[in-house]
From TrEMBL:
<dbReference type="InterPro" id="IPR015947">
    <property type="entry name" value="PUA-like_sf"/>
</dbReference>
<comment type="function">
    <text>Responsible for synthesis of pseudouridine from uracil-55 in the psi GC loop of transfer RNAs.</text>
</comment>
<keyword id="KW-0413">Isomerase</keyword>
<feature type="domain" description="tRNA pseudouridylate synthase B C-terminal">
    <location>
        <begin position="182"/>
        <end position="222"/>
    </location>
</feature>
<dbReference type="InterPro" id="IPR020103">
    <property type="entry name" value="PsdUridine_synth_cat_dom_sf"/>
</dbReference>
<dbReference type="Pfam" id="PF16198">
    <property type="entry name" value="TruB_C_2"/>
</dbReference>
<dbReference type="InterPro" id="IPR032819">
    <property type="entry name" value="TruB_C"/>
</dbReference>
<dbReference type="GO" id="GO:0160148">
    <property type="term" value="F:tRNA pseudouridine(55) synthase activity"/>
</dbReference>
<feature type="active site" description="Nucleophile">
    <location>
        <position position="44"/>
    </location>
</feature>
<keyword id="KW-0819">tRNA processing</keyword>
<dbReference type="InterPro" id="IPR014780">
    <property type="entry name" value="tRNA_psdUridine_synth_TruB"/>
</dbReference>
<protein>
    <recommendedName>
        <fullName>tRNA pseudouridine synthase B</fullName>
        <ecNumber>5.4.99.25</ecNumber>
    </recommendedName>
</protein>
<comment type="similarity">
    <text>Belongs to the pseudouridine synthase TruB family. Type 1 subfamily.</text>
</comment>
<dbReference type="Pfam" id="PF09142">
    <property type="entry name" value="TruB_C"/>
</dbReference>
<feature type="domain" description="Pseudouridine synthase II N-terminal">
    <location>
        <begin position="29"/>
        <end position="181"/>
    </location>
</feature>
<dbReference type="InterPro" id="IPR036974">
    <property type="entry name" value="PUA_sf"/>
</dbReference>
<dbReference type="Pfam" id="PF01509">
    <property type="entry name" value="TruB_N"/>
</dbReference>
Length: 297
């Protein structure tokens, strides 16, 4: 018997520089021959690395893909601030970073580690009054986005390089979802009094999905394939709750089960290894949050 969800799942793309996340989705739609493709966690055009996309029923799972942590490799250039806080913007101020020592940089990075308040870049995709901030900026409006709490669990320097009046710092960052790495570059440069911006950015992980899972668009064009089936995606993203065959059938029909003391969302898996649904306990019910395999399929 053919699995109705055989073509559903996630594609972890190693996004190339110069493409928007929407461009990647458009390519994937052509590659997989379906309009049902979406993505989670936008990457800027200059950025490369992990972009998680859903195909077919995998698109519905994206809304339940809670990537609490993300990791990046990046290069921060100290000695100039730009309009976009990255290399694509115009330089608005310069400062001689030749006298900046590594110890000063490390101290500044330490101040930006932990639970901090961060002001997102003005050219971000955050909506203000129903419009994207970057659209407002490009139409000539001044945009000031309020600072918001983020968590930086790692902000390490990997290498220092002098380039004329600039100091380039290769960094590795582990952070909460919603963190802007170019804002870290801006704030580090401001703290050191010389300005700073991002010159390279590569996302190395989104939650449980790593670069090891990622496929290039060239590879996918030649050999269309999922990185993870829907079953694999659910069980990697959430702790597993094993079901009996009767329980699996009930959840597939949207019914609820008796609670059993679970904390948080779990992937409910049938005896044959198929992921039936995401479930959560609420009150006296263990009910579905997302049904991956409804009985109608």
């Amino acid at each position: 018997m053919t699995d109705a969800l055989a073509g559903s799942g996630l594609v972890v793309v190693d996004k190339p520089a110069g493409m928007t996340s929407h461009d990647v989705v458009a390519r994937l739609r052509r590659i997989f021959g379906t309009r049902r493709v979406g993505h989670a966690g936008t990457l800027d055009p200059m950025a490369t690395g992990v972009l998680v996309a859903g195909v077919e029923r995998g698109t519905k799972f994206l809304a339940h893909l809670v990537a609490t942590t993300k990791s990046y490799d990046a290069t921060i250039r100290l000695g100039a601030a730009t309009t976009t806080d990255d290399a694509e913007g115009e330089v608005v101020s310069s400062g001689d970073a030749t006298s900046i020592r590594a110890e000063q940089v490390l101290a500044g990075m330490a101040e930006l580690t932990g639970d901090i308040m961060q002001r997102p870049a003005s050219v971000s995709a955050i909506k203000i009054g129903g419009r994207r901030a970057h659209e407002l900026v490009r139409s000539g409006e001044d945009v000031e986005i309020p600072a918001r709490p983020v968590t930086i669990t790692r902000f390490d320097a990997r290498a220092f390089r002098r380039d004329g009046p600039f100091l380039d710092v290769d960094v590795r960052v582990d952070c909460s979802s919603g963190t802007y790495i170019r804002s870290l570059a801006r704030d580090l440069g401001d703290a050191l009094g010389v300005g700073g911006h991002l010159t390279t950015l590569r996302r190395t992980s989104v939650g449980p999905f790593q670069l090891d899972d990622a496929l290039t668009l060239d590879t996918l064009t030649t050999s269309p394939q999922l990185s993870l089936t829907l079953d694999q995606a659910l069980t990697r993203s959430y702790p597993v709750l094993e079901l009996t065959a009767d329980e699996a059938a009930a959840l597939a029909m949207g019914k609820w089960l008796e609670p059993r003391g679970l904390d948080g969302v779990h992937a409910a898996v049938a005896p044959d290894g198929k992921a039936i649904a995401l479930v959560r306990e609420k009150g006296t019910r263990l009910s579905t949050v997302f049904v991956a395999r409804p009985s109608t399929l």
